[in-house]
Backbone:
């Protein structure tokens, strides 16, 4: 696992003014988001002790795993505009 984290650390992430993935308003407690917590390879989803799910977009790999795992009823998902988002560095 540390090899994966080291390789992910080589990537560069250029943020957008607004995130390209959002949890739809009112869906922050939806149990389908547990799949994103388990499946996101960058570990960007978390469940709080109060059952509210959060998403930290920095470091997103734009792989779409969360969209497939949760569905579009829970997430607003799109690719970032050109020049923003992840730039992969292979190490």
Residues:
């Amino acid at each position: 696992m540390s090899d994966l984290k080291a390789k992910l650390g080589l990537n560069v992430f250029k943020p957008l003014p607004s995130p390209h993935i959002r949890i739809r308003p009112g869906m922050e407690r939806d149990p389908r988001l547990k799949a994103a917590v388990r499946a996101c390879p960058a570990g960007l989803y978390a469940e709080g002790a109060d059952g509210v799910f959060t998403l930290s977009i920095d470091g997103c790999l734009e792989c779409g795993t969360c969209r497939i795992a949760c569905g579009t009823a829970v997430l607003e998902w799109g690719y970032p505009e050109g020049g923003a988002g992840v730039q992969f560095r292979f190490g």
